[in-house]
TrEMBL record:
Keywords: Methyltransferase, Transferase. This is 16S rRNA (Guanine(966)-N(2))-methyltransferase RsmD. The keyword Methyltransferase applies. The keyword Transcription does not apply. It comes from the Bacteria.
Length: 220
């Protein structure tokens, strides 16, 4: 392993020391994590700068796939606000038919493209989730395959996202929801999401410090 790469948990543990050392050498710190379950377990994935995006914690990721794994096979998984496509890659490892990651930040997108090489069915799209997601859902609805939608908005990283949950709720109300089977939110624990969003009902919620997962099921 090159000394220019560091595992994310070690980066977080010794951030200042590592950062100072690399800055003196004028080098970029490259952070990585691993796929934790399924057919690609142990494969390395790169992460973007933690100053720009917020990577999903391992314990949160494990919870998501422990809940949905048995129903994920041959479904389509969409990761909105996708960062480095970490969840989309994990979904394919757990036998999703195809997965998509939508990411606005150009640097994160470039890393997601590198990570997409793990599987030809991992599709990465650069752009605004609020513009791209309705188009993608409309296109995929024609394939008549159930969709799992994962929403992980940047609630504590980027300015201008103060109304992010209200905006997402409005987005969902205007989507073609015909083939969406499940919606999973990764959100700030201070935010209490509604029990129902249109025909979707919250049936599970798990808290991990500042992060909470809310699982919604299509009741139709």
């Amino acid at each position: 392993m090159s000394e220019d790469f560091i595992r994310v948990k070690d980066f977080l543990k010794e951030y200042q020391k590592i950062s100072d050392s690399k800055n003196k050498k004028n080098q970029t710190i490259k952070i990585y994590t691993f796929i934790e379950s399924g057919q690609y377990k142990g494969k390395k994935l790169l992460l973007p700068s933690l100053e720009k995006t917020r990577s999903t914690k391992s314990i949160v990721k494990a919870c998501v796939f422990n809940v949905i794994r048995q129903n994920l096979r041959n479904k389509i998984f969409i990761e909105a606000f996708g960062g480095s496509a970490l969840m989309a890659a994990e979904a394919l490892s757990n036998f999703a038919l195809k997965s998509y990651a939508i990411e606005l930040d150009k640097n994160a997108y470039k890393i997601a493209i590198q990570n997409s090489k793990i599987d030809q069915n991992l599709n990465v799209i650069q752009g605004n989730t609020f513009e791209i997601l309705p188009q993608l859902i409309e296109k995929l609805t024609q394939e008549n395959i159930p969709i799992f939608l994962y929403l992980d908005p940047p609630f504590d990283i980027r300015k201008g996202f103060e109304k992010i949950y209200e905006d997402i709720e409005n987005l969902l109300k205007n989507l073609n929801r015909k083939n969406i089977e499940k919606i999973i939110f990764e959100h700030h624990s201070k935010i209490e999401l509604p029990q129902n969003i249109e025909e979707f009902q919250k049936n599970k919620s798990k808290k991990f410090g500042l992060t909470t997962l809310s699982f919604y099921e299509n009741t139709l």
